[in-house]
Amino acid sequence: MRVIKARAALLSDFEVLQLLKECEADQREDARNRKESGADPAEDDNDVPPNLRTIQFETIASLSQGFRPCSVQNAQHITSFKQLIHDRGYVVPDTNILEGAVGLTKAERLQLVNHAPASVVELHTIIEELGQRMSDEQIEDILRCISSCLPMPTESASAAPVMDTSYAPMSEDAVDRPDVTMEEVHAAEEEDAFPEEHFEHETAGAVMDQDDDE
Known about the structure:
Structural class: mainly alpha
Largest sheet: none
Family: Belongs to the eukaryotic RPC9 RNA polymerase subunit family.
Number of strands: 0
Shape: elongated
Radius of gyration: 34 Å
Distance between the termini: 88 Å
Region (Disordered): 27-50, 188-214
Helix content: 40-55%
GO molecular function: nucleotide binding
GO cellular component, one term: RNA polymerase III complex
InterPro entries: HRDC-like_sf, RNA_pol_Rpb4/RPC9_core, Rpb4/RPC9, Rpb4/RPC9_sf, RPC9
């Protein structure tokens, strides 16, 4: 077997999400038509690879999460961003970038769409050797292009659940227990702080070992 085109195109997360949703809608429509026509629903399973629907469902659920930029993007957002960075001169052939030209590779442009970075730190994780390849003004310009064309996610990926700070009700034993003062606590800590059983006592008249030369 000979591969004609190893990679015909790069797909963004938004395009993958839309493609999977379309496939899911087609499968549901086909299943509905089979049910209405009285056909055996099991025949439809023979046309679908095993576990395909499970993979589709899990991928759609993952890409649809609120912190994913693709969950709030549309085709117009991506088209506007691509056109803007092209007009600014950042769309350069990858071979020219390897030779030192200022620009963004195809993979870097794709990652900018997928992650929509909002800070210089995030940009450094996407664009290799960003500080050496671009000036501070160009870095800020790229961030402005992103913020002006690509919507920001509605949620944060690092959002942690709120801790429960409520206190449990005090038990009856705790209510009847007498209060303990700080002096009593310190006294209990100092008591038997160095118990004798933790030390090896020397016998009477024992002396430290001395060198044979003395």
